[in-house]
Every structure is written in C-alpha cells, then in structure tokens.
Amino acid sequence: MPIFRAMTIREIITAPDPRLKVISKPVAEVTAETRALMDDMLETMYAAPGIGLAAIQIGVPLRIIVMDLAKDDEEPDPRYYINPEILEAAEETAPYEEGCLSVPDVYDTVERPDYVKLRFIDYHGEIRTMEASGLTATCIQHEMDHLEGILFIDHLSRLKRSMVLKKLAKQKRLEAEA
Ligand code: NI
C-alpha cells in the first residue's frame, strides 16, 4: 500500500460531449478513494484555473463538487460538497456572468436565485448545512447543474446555445487535425 499518493491533474471534458449530459449518482460512503478523487478534482481545478468543478467534468459520474472562491491575494479556501441538495432558494434572482471549464472561452449572463440553503456531506463525511448568497450561491448552483447534466449554456436562448456549441465543435475539429 502506498503511504503517499500524489495528486493528479485530470483531463477536463469539454462540450459538446455526451458525458457532460449524464446525471451523476449519489456517493454512498465517503472513503479514502472519494477523498483522493476530491484531491485530484481540486488540483485539476486550480491548474485550469477555475473556481468550481464537478466530478463529471473529469468523467466521474458522482455527485461531488469542489470550489474555491478565494481571491488571488487570499489564502486558498477549498470547499467540498458531496451529494448537495437545495433545501431553500430565494425567489429573487441575480444575474452573473458565468463561464465553465467545460465550455472554454464562453461567458454569458445567467439569472439564478440569489440565495440558497444547502445540505451536503463534507470532505470528512459529515452532514452539513450552509446558506449561500452572491457568487457562492451562483457557483454552487452552476456546479449542481453539472450533476444533472446541465451546462450554463443550457440556460441561454436556443440560438445562443447552438452558436456556442457549433463554435466549440469546430474548435475540437481544429484541435483534432492539429
Ligand atoms: Ni461548469
């Protein structure tokens, strides 16, 4: 048994890709393996760099999210959300310009509830609740969408979405030819 396991940067899946539409399954038990996966997710997110990542974005269909919303001049603040559930959401929405590591170089405004109350399991397997507003609320809802196979571009108009997907598909073809 190795006593030390280095974290690994995994490949991030980009749209269009059918794996990003998969509905992720709940984690039955938080084990050393789950924590190793979360460590890799965090490392992958930091390397990208990004502020949030769902397991499905590295091809693992489990309900796990990592986030870090600390600013560049702040200490890292890694957060882990396993099997997150929304208990309450505000009726008021707030617009945010969103982006996604699985939708490279695309940014657009999405309206989401500006407050949510969540229940989730943390890195150590403890059940916790949390209230979130502002960027945290936006980010957690964006990541929770990934668990349902939904991308932020799915909240845009059909026309915008199809333009984005065409652009991304073309980009993939060019990369494949290079
Ligand atoms: Ni995303």
Characterise the protein shown here.
The protein is α+β, with helices and mostly antiparallel strands and 178 residues long. It has a single domain, classed as Peptide Deformylase (Alpha-Beta Complex), CATH 3.90.45.10. It is 28% helix and 29% strand. The chain has helices at 32-47, 134-147, 158-177, and strands at 52-54, 64-67, 79-89, 93-100, 103-113, 115-121, 127-133. The strands form two sheets. It has a five-stranded antiparallel beta sheet. The longest helix is centred in the last third of the chain and has 20 residues, at 158-177. The radius of gyration is 16 Å and the shape is globular. The structure holds nickel (II) ion.
How would you describe this structure in keywords?
178 residues, Peptide Deformylase, five-stranded antiparallel beta sheet, two-stranded antiparallel sheet, 7 strands
Number of structural units classed as domains: 1
**Fourth CATH level, the homologous superfamily:** Peptide deformylase
Q: State the order of secondary-structure elements, H for helix, E for strand.
A: HEEEEEEEHH
Distance between the termini: 41 Å
Question: How does the overall form come out from the CA principal axes?
Answer: globular
Structural class: alpha+beta
Bound molecules: nickel (II) ion
What would CATH call the architecture?
A: Alpha-Beta Complex
- Characterize the main sheet: 5 strands, antiparallel
Mean pLDDT: 95
Give the beta-strand count.
7
Per CATH, what is the topology? Peptide Deformylase
Low-pLDDT windows of residues: none
